Amino acid sequence: MMEIVKVGMADYKVLKTSGILTTLGLGSCVGIALYDKYSKVAGLAHIMLPSSLEIKNNSNKAKFADTAIVELIKEMKLIGANENKLVAKLAGGSQMFSFNSNTDILRIGERNVLASKKVLQELSIPILSEDTGGNYGRTIELSVTDGNLLVKTVGHGTKNI
C-alpha cells in the first residue's frame, strides 16, 4: 500500500522514492510542492503567512513563505535532493471571504502566493504550474513517484497540475 503522509497547517514534510504528500483545506494558505525528479525527492509545505519578518512570534519556520521554503529545501537535501534540480508547483492562496476594503491585511491569500513566488525566484527554482486564487478551498496530493500535483476542490473539480 502506498504511504500517505499528511502535512498539517504551518508544517512541511519530505519523502523519497514513493508515496504521497497531502495537505487538506488550503484556503488563503499556500501549498508549496518541491520536486527533484532525478533523486525522486519531494517536499510539501503548507504556509499560512507571507513573511516571518512581520510577526513577533515567528519561531515556527514552517508557517511563513520566506522561511518554510528554505527549511524544506534543507530537509530535501538531507535525503538526496539536488537544489539545482528542484521544480515547484503552487496551490491555494484563495480570497476566502469578500471584504469591502482593499487593505493588504485582508488579501492574505494573494500575499502568500506573491511571497512564495518571490522566494522561489530568489532561489532560482522554476514554477512549473500553479492553481492559486479564487474563493474556494483546495486539498492537494503530491506524488513522489512522478511529481504530479493533484488539486481537489469542492465545486471546481479535480485536476493534475
UniProtKB/TrEMBL annotation:
It comes from the Bacteria. Belongs to the CheD family. Keywords: Chemotaxis, Hydrolase. GO terms for biological process: chemotaxis. The keyword Hydrolase applies. Its EC number is 3.5.1.44. The lineage of its organism: Bacteria, Bacillati, Bacillota, Clostridia, Eubacteriales. Probably deamidates glutamine residues to glutamate on methyl-accepting chemotaxis receptors (MCPs), playing an important role in chemotaxis. SUPFAM superfamilies: CNF1/YfiH-like putative cysteine hydrolases. This is Probable chemoreceptor glutamine deamidase CheD. It catalyses: L-glutaminyl-[protein] + H2O = L-glutamyl-[protein] + NH4(+). GO terms for molecular function: protein-glutamine glutaminase activity.
